[in-house]
Specification:
about 500 residues; single chain; 2 domains; globular; about 5% strand; five-stranded mixed β-sheet; alpha/beta
C-alpha cells in the first residue's frame, strides 16, 4: 500500500514538472521573432501554396519537390486550412514547439518500455528542454526527433504495425528516417536469434508488420509524388550532392570532425583544465551504462551511426543543423550519464540524505551548464540575421512587380513566401534542370537559360554568381532599378531586364 502511494506521488510530481517544462517551448513560441531561417520559408512557401489550393508548387507551376520535409509541409498546410486566421510561420513555430515538448511526454508515457523510473524521466525532461534548439523552431528538426522517439517507443511496446507507420512518417519528414526501420529490423532479428538461435515464423511476422506499416505512408506518398513531380525523393538531395561535386560546401563527416565535435559542450570546459570537457565525460558515463545495463538504448546509437555513414556515402553538402540529430542522441546519453551518477552516489554513500543532497546539486549544476546556451539564445535571439533585409526585399517586389514576373536569387525562402512571383532559384533547389550544371561549377547557366525579369545581386554571393554580372551581355540586357540594404556589409542591387 505504501509503495503504491509513493508511486502515485512520484508520478504526480513528474506530471507537474512536465507541465511546467512544457510551458517553456510554448512561451518561447509566443515570443518568437518573425524572422525564421530562410530555409524554413522554402517549406512554408510550399505550405502557403498548398493551403491556397495552388498545389505543391513554389508559387508557380511546374510542381517540384524542393523541400526536404514533405510531411512537415503537409502538416503546416493542413493546419493553415483549419486555422486560416493564424499566420503560417506562427503555425510552424508552435507545431515544432509542441513536438519539442512532446518528446519528454513520450518518455513518460513509455517509461516502463524504456526502463525508466519517474525521477529518471524528470532528468531526461530537464535535459531535453534545457538543450533546446531555439533558433530552429519552424524547421523539421523537432518533428523528426519526436517521431524518432515515438517510433522506438512503439517498437519497445511491441506495436509493430504502428512502429512501421511512424517510421514511414519519419522518412517523409527527412529521408534518414529510413535508417530507423533498418535498425529496428536488425534489433528484432538479433534479439530473436540470441533467444532462439533460429529464424522463425514469429520473427518474420514481426518484420512483415514493420515493413507493411512503413510502406503505407510511403506508398501513398509515392503515388502522389510520381504523378505530381515525376519522382519520389526531394530534389534537394541531388542539389546538395552537386555542391560537393564541385567543391561547394563541406561533407557531414568533415564538419563533424573538424567543426562540430570540438564545439560541443563548451560550457563544460574550463581554462584551468583545458583538456577536460565534463559534458563528454558525462556522455561517456551514460554510454558505458547503456553498454552494460540499458542495452535497449543502443538502438539510438545504431541509428545515429547509420545516419553518419549514410550521409558520408551520399556525400552531400551539409548545413549546420545536420549535427542536430547526433547532438540529440548524445544529449540523451548525457541524461543517462547523470542518472548513472545519481545511482552510484545513492548506492555507495551510506547516508541517504547526504547522497540525495549531493545528487541533487550535481544534477542541477550539470543541467544548468547544459542549459546556458539555450537560455542565452532565448534572451538574445532576434531571428535570422538576414530576415529583416530579406523581408524588405520581398516587400519591394510585392509593391513594384506583377506576380507573373520572374525574379532570380540564390536564397529563395523569404522571396518565395512573401511574394507571389515566379522564383528562379539559382541554387537549384526548385529547378532540377539547373543541378547538373551546378555540379560542373556553372551557376550562370540557370540565369541565362531563364533570363528572369529581375535579378537580385548581392556581392556576398560572388563566389557562385559573380560571373553573371561580369558577362558582357548582362549590362546590355539588364539595368539597375533599386538598391536596398543587404543583410551584411553590402547592399542588394535589383536589376530589371530591358524590354524586348
Amino acid at each position: 500500500m505504501q509503495n503504491k502511494i509513493t508511486s502515485q506521488s512520484s508520478s504526480f510530481f513528474t506530471i507537474v514538472l512536465l507541465i511546467v517544462l512544457s510551458l517553456i517551448p510554448l512561451i518561447i513560441s509566443y515570443r518568437y521573432p518573425a524572422f525564421l531561417n530562410d530555409d524554413s520559408f522554402i517549406t512554408l512557401t510550399y505550405a502557403k501554396n498548398l493551403a491556397a489550393g495552388n498545389g505543391f508548387v513554389f508559387n508557380h507551376p511546374p510542381a517540384v519537390l524542393g523541400t526536404t520535409t514533405p510531411l512537415l509541409t503537409i502538416f503546416i498546410a493542413g493546419l493553415a486550412l483549419v486555422i486560416p486566421q493564424i499566420d503560417i510561420p506562427v503555425i510552424a513555430v508552435f507545431l515544432t514547439a509542441i513536438c519539442w515538448l512532446g518528446i519528454p511526454w513520450t518518455f513518460f508515457f513509455f517509461r516502463i518500455e524504456w526502463g525508466l523510473e519517474n525521477w529518471q524521466v524528470c532528468i531526461l525532461a530537464l535535459v531535453l528542454i534545457g538543450s533546446g534548439w531555439v533558433s530552429f523552431l519552424g524547421m523539421e528538426a523537432y518533428l523528426f526527433a519526436f517521431l524518432l522517439i515515438l517510433a522506438i517507443s512503439l517498437f519497445f511496446s511491441e506495436h509493430y504495425l504502428l512502429t512501421g507507420l511512424t517510421a514511414g512518417l519519419l522518412f517523409l519528414t527527412r529521408g534518414e528516417g529510413v535508417f530507423v526501420l533498418v535498425v529496428l529490423m536488425i534489433a528484432i532479428t538479433l534479439q530473436d536469434w540470441v533467444r532462439k538461435r533460429s529464424i522463425n515464423v514469429a520473427l518474420l511476422r514481426t518484420i512483415a508488420k514493420l515493413a507493411i506499416g512503413f510502406a503505407i505512408p510511403i506508398f501513398i506518398w509515392a503515388i502522389f509524388a510520381h504523378f505530381t513531380f515525376g519522382f519520389v525523393l526531394p530534389n534537394t538531395l541531388a542539389t546538395k550532392q552537386a555542391y560537393i561535386q564541385h567543391g561547394f560546401g563541406q561533407s557531414l563527416l568533415h564538419r563533424l570532425t573538424t567543426e562540430w565535435i570540438p564545439g560541443w559542450g563548451n560550457t563544460f570546459a574550463f581554462e584551468a583544465m583545458p583538456f577536460v570537457n565534463f559534458w563528454w565525460i558525462v556522455v561517456i558515463i551514460g554510454f558505458i551504462d547503456v553498454l552494460v545495463r540499458k542495452r535497449r538504448w543502443l538502438i539510438l546509437l545504431g541509428w545515429v551511426t547509420l545516419y553518419i555513414i549514410g550521409y558520408t556515402l551520399l556525400n552531400v553538402s551539409s548545413a549546420w543543423w545536420y549535427q542536430l540529430p547526433i547532438l540529440f542522441v548524445l544529449n540523451l546519453f548525457f541524461a543517462l550519464g547523470i542518472i548513472t551518477i545519481v545511482e552510484i552516489l545513492t548506492r555507495k554513500l551510506k547516508h541517504r540524505n547526504l547522497a540525495l543532497g549531493i545528487s541533487f546539486l550535481i544534477t542541477i549544476l550539470l543541467i544548468f551548464l547544459l542549459s546556458l546556451p539555450t537560455f542565452n539564445t532565448i534572451l538574445d535571439y532576434q531571428g535570422d540575421s538576414r530576415g529583416q533585409s530579406y523581408a524588405a526585399l520581398s516587400q519591394w517586389f510585392r509593391k513594384n512587380t506583377k506576380p507573373s514576373e520572374s525574379l532570380a536569387f540564390i536564397e529563395i525562402g523569404y522571396l518565395g513566401y512573401y511574394t507571389d512571383n515566379r522564383i528562379i532559384d539559382l541554387a537549384g533547389l526548385v529547378l532540377p534542370d539547373i543541378v547538373p550544371h551546378i555540379a560542373e561549377g556553372d551557376f550562370e547557366w540557370g540565369f541565362w537559360s531563364y533570363q528572369p525579369d529581375y535579378y537580385v545581386y548581392l556581392p556576398d554571393f560572388d563566389w557562385a554568381l559573380g560571373d553573371i554580372r561580369a558577362d558582357s551581355q548582362f549590362s546590355q540586357k539588364y539595368q539597375p532599378v533599386a538598391t536596398l540594404d543587404g543583410p551584411w556589409q553590402t547592399d542588394f542591387i535589383i536589376y530589371k531586364r530591358n524590354s524586348r
